[in-house]
Amino acid sequence: MVSKYPQAASPLFAGTPEAIASSGAAAPASPLRAEFTRRGVLAAGAALALGAGAARARSADLAPVDVIVLGAGISGLHAARMLQKEGLTVSVLEGSARVGGRCWSGTDVPGRPEFGAGTVGAGYGRVRANAAELNVDLVPPPPGSRDIVVKADAGFSVYGRPVAALPWADSPLNLLAPQEHKMAPSTLLSHYLAHDAGLDNLTDWLTPEFAWLDKLSLREYFSSLGASREALRLMEAQAPAANLDEANALHFVRRTVYYGWEARAGRAHRVKGGTSALTDAMAASLRQPVQLNRFVRSIRADAKSVEVLCADGTRHRARSAISTIPFAVLKSLRVDGAVPAAQRAGWSALRSTAVVQVYMTVESPFWERDGALADMWSDSPLSRVYHLPSATDPCGILCGWISGDAVKALPSTDPAAIGRWTVAELARMRPASTGQVSVTHVHDWRAQPGELGHMASYQPGDIGRYAQALQQPVGALHFAGDHLGRVHVGLEAACEAGEHAAMAVMDRLL
User: Fold this and answer.
1) Which candidate, 204, 174, 236, places its Cα nearest to that of 2?
2) Taking 70 as the threshold, does the pLDDT of residue 56 lie above it?
3) Residue 241 near residue 4, CB atoms below 8 Å
4) 80, 394, 423, 454: least buried by Cβ within 10 Å?
5) How far is CA 243 from the centre of its chain?
6) What is the pLDDT of the chain when averaged over all its residues?
7) C-beta atoms surrounding 434 within 10 Å
8) Where are the beta strands (DSSP E) in 355-427?
9) Alpha-carbon distance 315 to 191, whole Å?
């Protein structure tokens, strides 16, 4: 990958010019700087001098405002802070009882795990600028931390057999092709995703040159690279979407290219006290407190105004609005306005992956008795078990991970039943864990009304069909969220998209 980015707009985003700056190998700043008329260029992640406020909603705050922001995740909060800086009155409506969206720190769960976003990359310029302005400290990750990846030397359970200490390369259960035989199952997906598909710049995925990759599922793409049938079977357990057939190859190759850029940009950090500490501070900096428990039922948008009706019967009006509501939720809401058919279709096409996380405390290091490491990978529905550090638990904690189509194997949506199933499944694969683990929390992203899943992804062919349409405003209603990031992924993509929407609103109103 090269480190220079073209000073031109992507063909898919005509009318939204982007100046892609140089990203030196250790540069912590974002590579994206977006333009808007009358104001020149706003630096990505610029310091925002804002007043203080509280995060509790007031039901009386129903007077018309300049801008309504739907959703108090980091994307909506970043946009609201920018708009407030420019003197606009902003009302942030949040459907749940908390701010942060998928920035969610389990502060009341042993080990204080991050349910969602946990890492602040070196290139997260906007995220870092918010933290610096609000005096929220960023610290190095604690020893043993990892970002949802199992090490190659983890314990492995395949074909229903218990975890064994025998190295994978020597296991009779290793049925991979000769060229793959030495690859651990947990590394197959990253190996094939890292194949050089020709994306040199972070915005290449939006150009017609890569339409061929957009049309392929991950199964088709990996097969074209020579992946064996057994490798595909093992990678299915680790599929980043519902399954390999629904996963858009271009979408996930693009993310892999981005992670490579991030790895070269410098050291990643975490938010001291948990990622929620940052979004809490962002919410507290708003002059008008975030209105919690304002779940949106309908939106009406025309060229001059937006009206939002919430489930509690309150009605909110503004000259413009920014929706960060995930499309998995938005597609079921009533949205009245001149919404193009392709845009509505895109709301349904972009899928949010089902993810269930089961957190467990550990009585003793049972992995020392079965001879394998605490981290585990399997081809069962409980495809990964992460061993995470804990400041209060000497043995650390475990996080069981069930995602995609594998959630269909769960006995029910009841957290207690899911917890019992997880403990039993772990004991089946690791008998030494019997009686050694206790479930402390089940976090089911499907059960969050404002999310209905975890990260969103495109299906084969849908980038070309819908990426441009999904970026377009509907009258005075604009859209943001990490699912609309064009350069970055993760937290920075959320802020990037929020910034684009905020600047479009400012261009409209000021």
Assistant:
1) 204
2) no
3) no
4) 394
5) 17
6) 88
7) 13
8) 355-362, 376-378, 384-388, 397-403
9) 51
Contact (CB, 8 A) for 272 and 118: no
Q: Are 403 and 454 in contact (CB under 8 A)?
A: yes
**How far apart are the C-alpha atoms of 399 and 437, rounded to whole Å?**
11
With a CB cutoff of 8 Å and minimum separation 6, the contacts of 408 are none
pLDDT of 29 higher than 80: no
Confidence at residue 147, expressed as pLDDT on a 0 to 100 scale:
54
Amino acid at 387: H
Q: Which residues contact 212 (CB under 8 A, 6 or more apart)?
A: none
pTM greater than 0.85: yes
Would you tell me how many other CB atoms lie within 10 Å of the CB of residue 507?
Answer: 13
> Which helix (DSSP H) or strand (DSSP E) does residue 308 occupy?
strand 306-310
Residues 451, 447: Cα–Cα separation, whole Å: 8
Spatial distance between the Cα atoms of 151 and 375, rounded to a whole number of angstroms: 7
Q: List pLDDT tens digits, range 254-276.
A: 999 999 999 999 999 999 999 99
Whether the CB-CB separation of 432 and 162 falls below 8 Å is answered with no
Report residue 280 as tokens.
Answer: 């809490």
19 pLDDT exceeds 80? no
pLDDT at 23 over 80: no
Interacting residues of 67 by C-beta distance below 8 A, sequence separation 6+: 80, 83, 88, 89, 90, 91, 318, 319, 320, 321, 322, 505, 509
Instruction: Look up residue 294 and give its two tokens.
Output: 């304002």
Please tell me what DSSP assigns to residue 437: E
**454: its two tokens:** 């975890």
Residue with tokens 């939006």: 206
| Sequence-ordered alpha helix ranges (H) in 3-85 | 74-85
Q: Which of 355, 365, 369, 423 is nearest to 397 (CA)?
A: 365
Report which of 47, 53, 49 is spatially closest to residue 284, judged by C-alpha positions.
53
Pairwise CA distance, residues 105 & 271, whole Å: 10
Asked if residues 122 and 270 have their Cβ atoms less than 8 Å apart, the reply is no
- What pLDDT is stored for residue 146 in this prediction? 62
Q: How far is CA 81 from the centre of its chain?
A: 21
Supply 107's token pair. Answer: 């502060």
Structure tokens that stand for 317 in this block:
């009006």
Distances (CA, A) of 208 to 13, 64, 185, 212: 12, 43, 33, 8
HEC string of 184-210 equals CHHHHHHHHHCCCCCCCCCCHHHCHHH
Q: Average pLDDT, stretch 71-91?
A: 98
Q: How far apart are CA 370 and CA 377, in angstroms?
A: 15
